[in-house]
């Protein structure tokens, strides 16, 4: 049995603690945190070693069925990190924080978002679901309040009355979404993360995140699909 090359230090533990209490951490914040933790505990620090640092933590989290995962914001393409519980395949992670009726509203909101063409659901459509819930009917005012909490807790994002899944939700629930929405859920052809807001090739059906579309076609003279080479008919963001 080979001994793990790198032991978990206090710096690793502190980094993990902060990540867990944040729910989700933006890439630049994670890099600052990495530096701070290493300097506080006087352990080796190199600015380009964050991935190795996280790999060490993940090797110790493996027996606990947990993992620090990296995902990208569908909004601006920035990296984010979140701690994922691999043992919980359903929306069970949320069950301790929300009531059954709140979870039902969340699931139905998720359905609307994932089944939509642009990865968004309007507040009107979501609030119309509130009085059709199986658990019990929810008043619209109550539903508005619950949606607000989902946004505060970083499960949903809201812009001008339109809701989409927060980066935290996408990172933590990727497996759940891929297995429960097999017909419609797709991974981005460029970064291979789950893509909710995406553009889709009309010829072969691959999808790409909007920031990935922007980055990929910036280097191309003519926008052609990276898979089938057909002309990319969507407007480049």
Automatic annotation (TrEMBL):
Pfam families: SMC_Nse1, zf-RING-like. It catalyses: S-ubiquitinyl-[E2 ubiquitin-conjugating enzyme]-L-cysteine + [acceptor protein]-L-lysine = [E2 ubiquitin-conjugating enzyme]-L-cysteine + N(6)-ubiquitinyl-[acceptor protein]-L-lysine. Its main location: nucleus. It is an enzyme of class 2 (transferase). Transmembrane segments: none annotated. It comes from the Eukaryota. One of its GO terms (cellular component) is nucleus. One of its GO terms (molecular function) is ubiquitin protein ligase activity. RING-type zinc finger-containing E3 ubiquitin ligase that assembles with melanoma antigen protein (MAGE) to catalyze the direct transfer of ubiquitin from E2 ubiquitin-conjugating enzyme to a specific substrate. Involved in maintenance of genome integrity, DNA damage response and DNA repair. This is Non-structural maintenance of chromosomes element 1 homolog. It comes from Orthonyx spaldingii (Chowchilla).
